[in-house]
């Protein structure tokens, strides 16, 4: 992996701590709400509110991030995440009554954190270090996913439910506080330019603009995320009725993801993204098939391990190529905040589309077979995303081949002698 500078490494640590705090409690929030309500629809509307407010926050806070201190947005997002878990902690089982406002609060918190984090990520990395950064981010995220949910599940089970939930929510609050303190070592980054509220929309309306193909690829990514981000963990709990089993599931799948992110981050150079991403999108679709046989802990584990194994082949080139496109010119880079907002708009639209399918299907039937068909339906959408992004990957592949050809010709050329 290419070497990252100190600011990039520090951002990785802050991002990892944010991930640890969310992994401790976030995995179990849908379970907590479902246990209080036993309503798939309530979980759906909680998540829908989270997505909508998260997307709107990206758009609105983009002005602050571009024109003022983006680090305050990052810290504010972490602080509001702490407020969210504190609210769940204080409300207890009454949280089901406030599910939609809680989802909105969590969406605002996540929006504030991630728009700042994505912009700073762009500023502290270069095209040749972004795959490395994303590989490390996946590694650290997987490490957090290995231990945090497992510990949480064990604590919840051992302390018989409510006390365990209170403890893990409190631990998350402490980690959020520590990450805010650590973020003060990230340099205050210079604000440049004036925020253009409709810049992204104009890119999409301009004929021949590269974002007209990139945007639907991002939407396709969001469709899958909109359902998988919460339904898989909830399905594992409903299949087992045991939080410790959900923690173990997360431990195993995250360990596989850790190894896979490390390997893919090391192997997946720009000229390999085209083939690697195709393998990734096909395989994360095929691993859903065992669930048609039976929705059990064993088949869910097979699905989870397969997803963890192949997801890095999809997500690393997808993320890297989007940010490479943002930085392809000085003009484009000067509008990085608007492009980060445009990327999030695509993810939000996709997530809302995927979640809308969930909200339509589940009131009709919540049988295991229906849930499996839903997972398959949204799970194959990234294949369309690969098709949309394919020209960008082919272009990189051709550029690398041409560069290698010129290097060989230059190496064979002999210097003239007098």
Report on this model:
It is a single chain. By secondary structure, this protein is mainly alpha-helical. The radius of gyration is 22 Å and the shape is globular. The model has no long low-confidence stretch (mean pLDDT 88). It contains 17 helices and no strands.
Level-2 CATH architecture? Up-down Bundle
Q: What is the CATH first-level class name?
A: Mainly Alpha
Count of distinct strands: 0
Tell me, rounded to a whole number, the average pLDDT. 88
Helix content: over 70%
CATH topology: Growth Hormone, Chain: A
How is this structure best summarized?
It contains 17 helices and no strands. It is an all-alpha fold. Helix 9 runs antiparallel to helix 13 and helix 9 packs across helix 15.
SSE order and pairing:
Elements: H1 6-25, H2 29-37, H3 40-67, H4 70-91, H5 99-124, H6 127-158, H7 162-183, H8 199-205, H9 211-240, H10 243-267, H11 273-286, H12 290-293, H13 297-326, H14 330-333, H15 336-364, H16 368-379, H17 381-412
Helix pairs in contact: 1-5, 1-6, 1-7, 3-4, 3-5, 3-15, 4-5, 4-7, 5-15, 6-7, 6-10, 6-13, 9-10, 9-13, 9-15, 9-17, 10-13, 11-13, 11-17, 15-16
Sum up the structure in keywords.
single chain, mainly alpha, 17 helices, 418 residues, globular, Growth Hormone, Chain: A
């Amino acid at each position: 992996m290419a070497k990252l500078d100190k600011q990039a490494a520090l951002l990785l640590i802050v991002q990892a701590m944010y991930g640890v705090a969310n992994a401790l409690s976030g995995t179990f929030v849908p379970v907590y709400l479902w246990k209080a309500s036993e309503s798939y629809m309530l979980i759906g509307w909680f998540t829908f509110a989270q997505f909508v407010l998260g997307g709107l926050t990206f758009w609105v806070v983009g002005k602050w991030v571009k024109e003022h201190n983006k680090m305050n947005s990052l810290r504010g997002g972490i602080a509001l995440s702490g407020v969210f878990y504190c609210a769940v902690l204080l409300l207890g089982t009454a949280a089901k009554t406030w599910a939609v406002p809680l989802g909105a609060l969590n969406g605002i918190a996540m929006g504030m954190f991630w728009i700042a984090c994505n912009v700073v990520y762009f500023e502290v990395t270069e095209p040749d270090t972004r795959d490395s950064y994303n590989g490390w981010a996946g590694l650290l995220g997987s490490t957090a996913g290995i231990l945090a949910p497992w510990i949480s599940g064990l604590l919840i089970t051992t302390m018989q439910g409510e006390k365990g939930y209170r403890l893990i929510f409190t631990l998350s609050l402490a980690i959020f506080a520590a990450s805010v303190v650590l973020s003060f070592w990230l340099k205050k980054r210079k604000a440049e330019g004036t925020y253009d509220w409709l810049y992204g929309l104009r890119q999409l309306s301009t004929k021949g603009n590269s974002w007209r193909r990139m945007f639907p690829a991002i939407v396709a990514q969001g469709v899958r995320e909109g359902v998988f981000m919460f339904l898989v963990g909830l399905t594992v709990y409903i299949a087992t009725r045991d939080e410790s089993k959900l923690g173990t599931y997360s431990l195993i799948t995250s360990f596989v993801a850790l190894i896979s992110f490390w390997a893919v981050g090391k192997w997946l150079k720009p000229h390999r993204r085209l083939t690697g991403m195709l393998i990734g999108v096909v395989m994360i679709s095929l691993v859903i098939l065992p669930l048609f046989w039976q929705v059990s802990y064993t088949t869910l584990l097979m699905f989870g391990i397969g997803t963890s194994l192949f997801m890095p082949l999809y997500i690393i080139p997808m993320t890297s190529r989007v940010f490479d496109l943002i930085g392809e010119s000085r003009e484009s880079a000067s509008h990085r905040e608007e492009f980060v907002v445009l990327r999030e708009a695509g993810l939000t639209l996709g997530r809302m589309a995927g979640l809308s399918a969930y909200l339509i299907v589940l009131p009709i039937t919540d049988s295991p077979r229906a849930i499996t068909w839903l997972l398959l339906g949204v799970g194959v959408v990234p294949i369309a995303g690969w098709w949309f992004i394919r020209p960008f990957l082919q272009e990189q592949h051709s550029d690398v081949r041409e560069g290698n050809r010129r290097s060989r010709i230059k190496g064979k050329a002999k210097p003239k002698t007098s």
